[in-house]
Structure formats: structure tokens, C-alpha cells
């Protein structure tokens, strides 16, 4: 569908498209986001090639882990959102990885010191004591995390002005890692330009990345969506900024 389609047609398209897994291919040609400069998937692949036993926490649909070309002897992933679990199992089957469905905020279902590598891309919440518990002495935790106020411009376009973000600051992650007995050996931050070309892309994104506008539905937020649609038509693509940080810690 073209970006010149009607408001109703665009939001209907964005509301109907599937959001299973954690790939963003549906946005091709409709939205773009800069990639962080450190190359998380490449870093994970390199760490996996040197690992014996590894765990991917909050694997989503397993899309990033599936890029690993040399998996370790033992490779396990966890996922708490039920629709993602079969997607991850299909994506990770060629690697011989096990995917466990878990409950959000529950302890990791593994024995102490089970892994020499734990990775996590965009975790909903990092349970630092649990990460430290399942890591072997000398083991590594590598994670790309969502920073404070990510795509805040989009959140405010739908919800109105918001207070300054209180969570997801890198300094908070460093302090939490230290409290759990881990030593942070790398911390990098990036602000990434994110561009939405039509309101259908916005609707699909808000359905998938649910923390951007908690409780989002087209029906509840139709007036704000209509205003943003008219803004895009009048001014061109809507620009927001995603914030990411890379943190690496050792036990």
C-alpha cells in the first residue's frame, strides 16, 4: 500500500499485519532505524564461537541468535512471550538450540554456574542477580539494552508530554551489575535516528514494541493517530530517536 493511502486504510493495514517474533521486516520501505555502531550480532557470534555453554535471555523469535555460525556445545534460549516461542524454536532448530518458555520475572530455570556466556538483546528487564548466579566464574554477560526515553518523540506524539525517564539509564545498569557481583568491562551508548513514513508503520510499531505506548490500541488512540497522520502528510516523515547501550560484564 502506498503512503498516500487514506488514514483508515493505513491504520487498518498496520493493525492487521502479524507481529509475532522480533523481526521488523514488515517495516521495509515504511520505517527505518539506524543500527548501533558496535554490531551486536557480530559480537554475539564471536563470543558464541569461543563458548562452551551459552544462554540467550529474552530471545524474541531467535532472530539474532540464528545468525550464529559456530554455536557452542550447549545453547539454550528463554522467551516469556508465548507467540514468540514457536517462532524461536523454528529459527533456532538448525543450531541445535533448546528454547524454553518461561514466566516473566521468574528465576532462570538453570542450576548455578551453568553457563560461561549469557547474552540478551533488548531484555524487558535484566535480573542481574540471576544472571550472576547462572554464570560460571570468569563467565561473561553481553547485552544490548534499550536506553532511557527511547523513541520518546513518538510516545509524546500519542500520549502528550511525559515526565523525564526514570529507568533504563546505563548508570543504573552498571550499579545493578556491581551489586550482583559482576564487573562491567565495557559500556557504550548510541542515539539512533528512527524514521516513520506513514501512520500504518506507526500502528504496527506500537503494537509490537508495547512499552512505547503502554496499553496501545487503535480505538483508544485514534485521535492522536489522526493528528500524527496529518502531520506526516503535511511535513514529511516523522523522526524519533532510539537509544541503546551495550554492556559487557564478567563474573
Automatic annotation (TrEMBL):
InterPro entries: 23S_rRNA_MeTrnsfrase_RlmA, Methyltransf_11, SAM-dependent_MTases_sf. It comes from the Bacteria. GO terms for molecular function: S-adenosylmethionine-dependent methyltransferase activity. Residues 55-142 form the Methyltransferase type domain. Keywords: Methyltransferase, Transferase. One of its GO terms (biological process) is methylation. It holds the Pfam family Methyltransf_11. Gene3D superfamilies: Vaccinia Virus protein VP39. This is SAM-dependent methyltransferase. It comes from Micromonospora craterilacus.
Amino acid at each position: 500500500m502506498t503512503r498516500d493511502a487514506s488514514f483508515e486504510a493505513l491504520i487498518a493495514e498496520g493493525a492487521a499485519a502479524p507481529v509475532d517474533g522480533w523481526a521488523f521486516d514488515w517495516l521495509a520501505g515504511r520505517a527505518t532505524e539506524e543500527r548501533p555502531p558496535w554490531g551486536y550480532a557480530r559480537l554475539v557470534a564471536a563470543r558464541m564461537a569461543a563458548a562452551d555453554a551459552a544462554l540467550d535471555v529474552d530471545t524474541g523469535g531467535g532472530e539474532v541468535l540464528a545468525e550464529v555460525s559456530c554455536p557452542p556445545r550447549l545453547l539454550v534460549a528463554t522467551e516469556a512471550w508465548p507467540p514468540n516461542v514457536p517462532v524461536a524454536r523454528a529459527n533456532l532448530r538448525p543450531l541445535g538450540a533448546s528454547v524454553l518458555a518461561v514466566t516473566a520475572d521468574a528465576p532462570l530455570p538453570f542450576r548455578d554456574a551453568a553457563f560461561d556466556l549469557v547474552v540478551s538483546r533488548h531484555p524487558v528487564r535484566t535480573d542481574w542477580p540471576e544472571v550472576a548466579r547462572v554464570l560460571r566464574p570468569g563467565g561473561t554477560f553481553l547485552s544490548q539494552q534499550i536506553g532511557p526515553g527511547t523513541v520518546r518523540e513518538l510516545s509524546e506524539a500519542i500520549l502528550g508530554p511525559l515526565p523525564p525517564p526514570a529507568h533504563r539509564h546505563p548508570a543504573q545498569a552498571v550499579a545493578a551489575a556491581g551489586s550482583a557481583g559482576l564487573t562491567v568491562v565495557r559500556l557504550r551508548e548510541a542515539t539512533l535516528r528512527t524514521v516513520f513514513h506513514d501512520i500504518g508503520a506507526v500502528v504496527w510499531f506500537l503494537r509490537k514494541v508495547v512499552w512505547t505506548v503502554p496499553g496501545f490500541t487503535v480505538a483508544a488512540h485514534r485521535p492522536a493517530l489522526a493528528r500524527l497522520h496529518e502531520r506526516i502528510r503535511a511535513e514529511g516523515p516523522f523522526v524519533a530517536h532510539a537509544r541503546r547501550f551495550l554492556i559487557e560484564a564478567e563474573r
